[in-house]
């Protein structure tokens, strides 16, 4: 595996290397990232893992400062899981002097995470378009854990005629259901225990659907009650259409139950798909 730091090096390295599968990440790899890398391995000839802690998608300076970083460990794990290229650009390579363009996705990008993390999706959409143009992959692999990000990326790829297929990998979880996240290392043992409330709440909403409950409000109440029971502070709980992220009053077909919550100072998100 090669670690490369410039667009010119990556483009030169990829010439004649067949179908390219790209895995965008901010590093601090866990099994969720590794399952994306393995999915990329299965869907391309050459696997490029992008590692960049993108300052433009952080709306809190403290969150950016606390974000875990370990390139040496990440390089080892990327290689062990089938990456051919680890692309680690410097901030100057990504945002050169005079950088002035922002990509924004209306609608999907303006609700839920878009409200609670102002500027987040403009940062995400802009870096995604840049990555896809820098690397030119046939396939790009994203995790279902960031469901609204997936919807934003699918929208912009369709709207801007980007010739990249988007592959989505299911959320990888701890044995007790907590979705793996680079931020989980910031949880102390008591907070780590309380954090299980997110997935427990989502599971009880999914079970309610299995028992015939359809109203979005009733499903939200299931999740909220579980969070309150664990003294976890919800930022939002919503039942939405998986593609548009518009609220669903009554589930008919597929819907997503999505949650964002603070456990202590750590902000966590999760979601579950429900089907009638
Ligand atoms: P991040 O490094 O947190 O920006 O995440 C990079 C990619 O990994 C994104 O597409 C995430 O959705 C995905 N990802 C993060 N956590 C998980 C998880 N627990 N399971 C599957 N994919 C994940």
What does this structure look like?
39% of the residues lie in helices and 20% in strands. The chain has helices spanning 7-14, 31-43, 61-66, 71-80, 91-94, 113-116, 120-135, 147-159, 189-194, 197-210, 216-229; strands at residues 2-4, 20-25, 46-51, 85-87, 139-143, 165-169, 233-240, 254-263, 266-275. Strands 1-4-3-2-5-6 form a six-stranded parallel β-sheet, with helices on both faces. Strands 7-8-9 form a three-stranded antiparallel β-sheet. Helix 10 (197-210) packs antiparallel against helix 11 (216-229). The longest helix has 16 residues, at 120-135. The radius of gyration is 19 Å and the shape is globular. The N and C termini lie far apart (45 Å). Bound molecules: adenosine monophosphate. Residues 25-26, 32-33, 35-36, 142-143, 145-146, 169, 171-172, 179-182 line the site of adenosine monophosphate.
Question: Layout of SSEs?
Answer:
Blueprint: E1 2-4, H1 7-14, E2 20-25, H2 31-43, E3 46-51, H3 61-66, H4 71-80, E4 85-87, H5 91-94, H6 113-116, H7 120-135, E5 139-143, H8 147-159, E6 165-169, H9 189-194, H10 197-210, H11 216-229, E7 233-240, E8 254-263, E9 266-275
Parallel strand pairs: 1-4, 2-3, 2-5, 3-4, 5-6
Antiparallel strand pairs: 7-8, 8-9
Helix pairs in contact: 7-8, 10-11
The protein binds adenosine monophosphate (AMP).
Residues 25-26, 32-33, 35-36, 142-143, 145-146, 169, 171-172, 179-182 line the site of adenosine monophosphate (AMP).
Main traits of this protein?
276 residues, alpha/beta, six-stranded parallel sheet, three-stranded antiparallel sheet, 11 helices, globular, binds adenosine monophosphate
């Amino acid at each position: 595996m090669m670690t490369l730091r410039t667009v010119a090096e990556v483009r030169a390295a990829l010439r004649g290397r067949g179908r390219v599968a790209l895995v965008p990440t901010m590093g601090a790899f866990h099994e969720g990232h590794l399952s994306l890398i393995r999915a990329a391995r299965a869907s391309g000839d050459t696997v490029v893992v992008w590692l960049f802690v993108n300052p433009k998608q952080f709306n809190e300076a403290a969150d950016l400062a606390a974000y875990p970083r370990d390139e040496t460990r990440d390089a080892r794990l990327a290689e062990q899981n089938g990456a051919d290229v680890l692309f680690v650009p410097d901030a100057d390579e990504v945002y050169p002097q005079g950088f002035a363009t922002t990509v924004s996705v209306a609608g999907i990008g303006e609700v839920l995470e878009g409200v609670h993390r102002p500027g987040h999706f403009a940062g995400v959409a802009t870096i995604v378009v840049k990555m896809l143009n820098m690397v030119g992959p046939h396939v790009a692999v994203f995790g279902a854990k960031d469901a609204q990000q997936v919807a934003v990326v699918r929208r912009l790829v369709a709207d801007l005629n980007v010739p990249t297929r988007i592959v989505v990998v299911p959320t990888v979880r701890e044995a007790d259901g907590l979705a793996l996240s680079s931020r989980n290392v910031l949880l102390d043992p008591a907070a780590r225990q309380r954090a299980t409330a997110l997935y427990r709440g989502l599971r009880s909403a999914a079970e309610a659907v299995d028992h015939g409950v359809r109203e979005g409000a009733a499903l939200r109440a299931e999740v909220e009650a579980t969070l309150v029971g664990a003294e976890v502070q919800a930022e939002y709980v919503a039942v939405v259409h998986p593609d548009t992220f518009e609220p669903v009053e009554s589930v008919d077909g597929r819907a997503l139950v999505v949650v964002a919550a603070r456990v202590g100072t750590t902000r966590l998100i999760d979601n579950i798909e429900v089907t009638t």
